[in-house]
Amino acid sequence: MSPRSSRVLVALFVMAGCFGQSSKAERHVSQLVEHWLWKQYWYGASELGTRYRTGQEFQALAFWRADEKPPSVGFCSTELGICQFYPDTTTIGASFEAKMALREDAQSAFRRFLRDSFGQNASSLVNLPEPSASDYVAETVKIVLPAITAPEAIRARRVRPPAETDALSAALSCLPDQSGCKVHLLIPFYSENDPWIPVYRECSRCPNTKPMIIFMRRIEGTWWHGARDFDDGPDFVRRTRRRIEEALMVEVNR
Questions:
Q1: Between the CA of residue 17 and those of 1, 8, 68, 142, 211, what are the distances in Å?
Q2: Do residues 77 and 179 share a domain?
C-alpha cells in the first residue's frame, strides 16, 4: 500500500475514532465516506456534489437500521444543511435528500425526515408510510472528508482468488455455439463490498460486437448481470475503460 493510501485510510479512522463514537458509528461513517469515493471514481460525482470539499470537517447525526436489514445509513448535518439517506448500501440504487429548515437542529430534521418518509412524500402523489424511529439507531458523529481518491479495493490492490475471477471471465465469455468468437475483458480491482463491478467487454463474431461496460454482481458465489446491466454508449465506455485500466487487476483474451 502506498503512503498516500495509508494516509487516506488513517483519515477514515481518525475521523470516526477520536470523538468518542461507538464502533458501529465508526463503521457506518467509514462506509458512507467509502461510498462517496466509489461514486466519485466510477461516476465522476457523488451524492454530495459540490458540497464535497477535501479536508472539510462537520458534525452530523448519523442513523442506520438497527437490524441491518437491509444495511442502510443516513445523516442530517446543520453545517451542510441537508439530510441524506441511503436505503441499501449494497446497491447503487436511489438515495434520498431533504434540505434542513433555517435554524433547524439535526434531531428535529431527522424526525421531520422520517415523517416525510425520507423526503419521498414531498415529491410523491401517494403518501408513503412513515418509517418507525424505533427501527433506527442515531448517533452524533464527526465526519472529515478525505482527499478524493480511488475506492479502498483499488487503493489496496488486492488480487481476488483465481477461481473467482475465472468464474467472472467465464460468465462473460463466448457461448459454445458462437464459432470464431473472441472476447477481450478488462477487470478492475474490486471487493465484495462493491455494489457492482464494471467490466470492459469487447467481442468479435458475437451478436453484439460493440465495446461495452457490463455491470457484474456476485451473489452467493455466483456471477450474474441483468438484461439491462450494461452500457455501450461511446462516451461512457471510453471514460470507464480508462478508469478500469488505471485499476486493472485482470486482462482476459479468449
A1: 22, 14, 22, 9, 44
A2: no
Helix residue ranges, H only, 44-189: 106-115, 152-156, 162-171
CB 169 within 8 A of CB 250: yes
Q: Which domain holds residue 193?
A: 158-253
- Region 55-84 average pLDDT: 94
> 238 or 12, which is more confident?
238
pLDDT at residue number 234 = 96
Biggest distance spanned by C-alpha atoms of the chain: 68
pTM score:
0.83
Q: What is the pLDDT of residues 15-32, one digit of tens each?
A: 334 445 788 899 999 989
Do 128 and 234 lie in one domain? The reply is no
State the Cα–Cα distance between residues 175 and 178, nearest whole angstrom. Answer: 5
pLDDT of residue 249: 98
| Statement to judge: residues 92 and 113 lie in one domain | yes
